[in-house]
Amino acid sequence: xxxxxLIQMAALYDTGEALHASLELAEVLxxxxxxxxxxxxxxxxxxxxxxxxxxxxxxxxxxxxxPGAEAIFxxxxxxxxxxxxxxxxxxxxxxxxxAALEVGPILIAxxxxxxxxxxxxxxxxxxxxxPFTEGDLNLLEAFAAQAARAxxxxxxxxxxxxxxxx
Length: 166
Prior knowledge:
By secondary structure, the chain is an alpha+beta fold. Helix content is 46%, strand content 19%. It is globular and about 55 Å long.
């Protein structure tokens, strides 16, 4: 794993503990967006899940975002889904496609569990915010891995009632 300092490691541990405290999918999704935003000191944070049966996107656990944000993210999420790589935009205001988000730097990390791409985690800083550092990228990548495992576990847990009725 890339280098994280002691403060980042402690924050990552604390958020990981909180994420794994529940197996209810809705709660895990909300926690992932809230804790991810706090951990990254982001102005906005959102979580997207890719649909099981199609290539569509589902928008989940989003704190304060402008109306129509899902459509704004579609091209970035398509890129992430194709490449599997984190998307890093230094200044969202410099491109009219992202200006409606009213953020500066943008990071979108893949949510992967068991070699499966579950979705993506978005963090956007304030317009006057400093760019994300290499440490921030490493931190978001590590948090996204934790969030993906928690989401995957909650998704499996949500299947139990259906399996019991068979």
